[in-house]
């Protein structure tokens, strides 16, 4: 069953969705809402206007114990882990249908919890998340084990088995999509999953978890624990009952998780981390307008709070002034506003504290001698944690503006004179997540893509992709892959069964 519908078209229509939405108020454990064992709660603040939104349980280590124990019980019971793969896939397909049915509500929850325009959440984040659940649901019975052509006196089977209990820790910038990069893949492989969403943004995935139970996930197979990162995240990383950990977030927390795993049961830790993605515009670009539209979008989308944000714009010197003028003009015209208003293109930053951090980076950049051609570190008045886009020129490759991940709408423009120099600058980063190359030359498209160290290179586009291709990073951007068939690797163990005939 597919539901074709269009998004609410007015602010009043989104407010009507809110009027009939009840906010999740518990952790989703063992198929029901639960308070924290000690009754603690944390208040969520909406970046829409800075008001208190609701409270959710502030879990502690004993809540993690409860979640992991329930996930383990469910795994051992076999009602999910030993189900025929097609039946697991069918549950995921029903789950995707339910998410489609609740698409407005899910988009609203994302808008309220982290400030993304609801229309964008509806059209991009929730659609992508539904697509991921559906894609893994369809894949369920299309995976094959191997039997190498071995010796005549034996048969070898190389099979993939679920690991048991998977922990997933995810950030606030795409609270649903980045969780759905992991959860359906881990589940379709037969694991149980304990998800810790970012402490600022648990609501959308709590609702998704409840829908999963309605779709037929047995109790305990998908648990969502709420609470602070240092408490819940650390407890999961140290838990001896967790078989593997998949993390998306900052390199600093990734490093902590590796240490915690090393100090406990040596669980594998897959890391999707930060980025400082270069966006290269060569002098032979075919469509300069498209390149400038995309360069502006690549730093304004999600208010720049993207691991893949095109935060370093590398432009051939002959185009530098034209591109700076064009991109600046586009960014100045971006419509900021209420995340529930469908005409809003640019929402507030996710938290008051994050806005202060981004503003401090703009001040630091200005004081460093780079030229601020758009934006300001001044915090605007009015409701919501807004901060308009900023553009710096005169940035050198080693400057903090070209090295530090700001995770906000701050663009650094650098220039280059030839292909080799462009590649050296592009690779002059601790990160290696995404990169974009704008050129009309087939040779250059291939050769530059090969030489850039990144998990994904886009040619004459940016941020494109779907569930069928892997997403991951190199260097400080992490390792491994989410999405695609490769996204299953970290959630399965290879087993060799060797039989003498
Ligand atoms: P973060 O690392 O602060 O938090 C990520 C998650 O870890 C959250 O759930 C948080 O509660 C938890 N956490 C925080 N402190 C912890 C601790 N001490 N121990 C265990 N868990 C802890 O990151 P963020 O601020 O939520 O997100 C921004 C970062 O995430 C940026 O660096 C961004 O580039 C990165 N990111 C990467 C990708 C990717 O796919 N590569 C996608 C989105 C965001």
From TrEMBL:
Q: Which PROSITE patterns match?
A: ALDEHYDE_DEHYDR_CYS, ALDEHYDE_DEHYDR_GLU
Residues at the active site? 272
| Gene3D superfamilies per UniProt | Aldehyde Dehydrogenase, Chain A, domain 1, Aldehyde Dehydrogenase, Chain A, domain 2
Q: Which UniProt keywords apply?
A: Oxidoreductase
Q: What residues does the Aldehyde dehydrogenase domain cover? A: 42-496
A GO molecular-function term, please?
Answer: oxidoreductase activity, acting on the aldehyde or oxo group of donors, NAD or NADP as acceptor
Query: Would the keyword Oxidoreductase be found if you checked this record's keyword annotation?
Result: yes
Q: Which family does it belong to?
A: Belongs to the aldehyde dehydrogenase family.
Q: What is this protein called?
A: Aldehyde dehydrogenase family protein
């Amino acid at each position: 069953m597919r539901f074709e519908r269009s998004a609410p078209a007015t602010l009043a229509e989104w407010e009507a969705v809110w009027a009939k939405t009840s906010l999740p108020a518990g952790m989703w454990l063992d198929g029901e809402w639960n308070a924290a064992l000690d009754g603690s709660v944390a208040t969520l603040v909406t970046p829409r206007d800075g008001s208190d939104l609701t409270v959710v349980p502030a879990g502690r280590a004993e809540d993690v114990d409860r979640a992991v124990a329930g996930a383990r019980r469910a795994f051992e019971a076999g009602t999910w882990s030993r189900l025929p793969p097609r039946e697991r896939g069918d549950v995921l397909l029903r789950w995707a249908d339910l998410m489609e049915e609740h698409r407005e509500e899910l988009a609203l929850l994302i808008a309220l919890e982290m400030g993304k325009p609801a229309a964008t959440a509806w059209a991009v984040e929730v659609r992508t998340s539904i697509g991921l659940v559906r894609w893994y649901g369809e894949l369920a019975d299309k995976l094959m084990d191997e039997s190498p052509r071995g010796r005549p006196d034996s048969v070898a089977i190389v099979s993939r088995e679920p690991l048991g209990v998977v922990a997933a820790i995810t950030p606030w910038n795409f609270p649903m999509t980045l969780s759905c990069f992991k959860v359906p893949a881990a589940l379709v492989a037969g694991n149980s999953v304990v998800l810790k969403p970012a402490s600022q943004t648990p609501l959308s995935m709590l609702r998704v978890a409840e829908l999963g139970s309605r779709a037929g996930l047995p109790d305990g197979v998908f648990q969502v624990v709420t609470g602070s990162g240092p408490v819940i995240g650390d407890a999961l990383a140290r838990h001896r009952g967790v078989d593997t950990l998949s993390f998306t977030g900052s390199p600093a927390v990734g490093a902590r998780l590796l240490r915690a795993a090393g100090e406990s049961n040596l669980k594998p830790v897959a890391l999707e981390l930060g980025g400082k993605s270069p966006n290269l515009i060569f002098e032979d670009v075919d469509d300069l307008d498209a390149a400038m539209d995309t360069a502006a979008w690549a730093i304004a989308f999600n208010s720049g709070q993207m691991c893949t944000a095109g935060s370093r714009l590398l432009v051939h010197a002959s185009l530098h002034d034209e591109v700076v003028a064009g991109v600046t003009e586009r960014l100045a015209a971006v419509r900021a506003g209420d995340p529930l208003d469908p005409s809003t293109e640019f929402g507030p930053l996710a938290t008051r504290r994050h806005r202060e951090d981004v503003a401090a980076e703009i001040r630091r950049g200005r004081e460093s001698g780079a030229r601020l051609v758009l934006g300001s570190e001044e915090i605007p008045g009015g409701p919501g944690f807004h901060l308009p886009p900023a553009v710096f020129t005169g940035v050198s490759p080693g400057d903090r503006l070209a090295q530090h991940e700001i995770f906000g709408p701050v663009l650094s423009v650098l220039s280059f004179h030839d292909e080799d120099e462009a590649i050296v600058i592009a690779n002059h980063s601790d990160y290696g997540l995404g990169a974009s190359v704008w050129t009309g030359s087939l040779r250059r498209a291939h050769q530059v893509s090969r030489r850039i160290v990144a998990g994904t290179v886009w040619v004459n586009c940016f941020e494109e992709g779907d569930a069928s291709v892997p997403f991951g990073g190199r260097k400080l951007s992490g390792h491994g892959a989410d999405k695609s068939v490769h996204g299953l690797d970290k959630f399965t163990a290879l087993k060799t069964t060797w039989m003498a005939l």
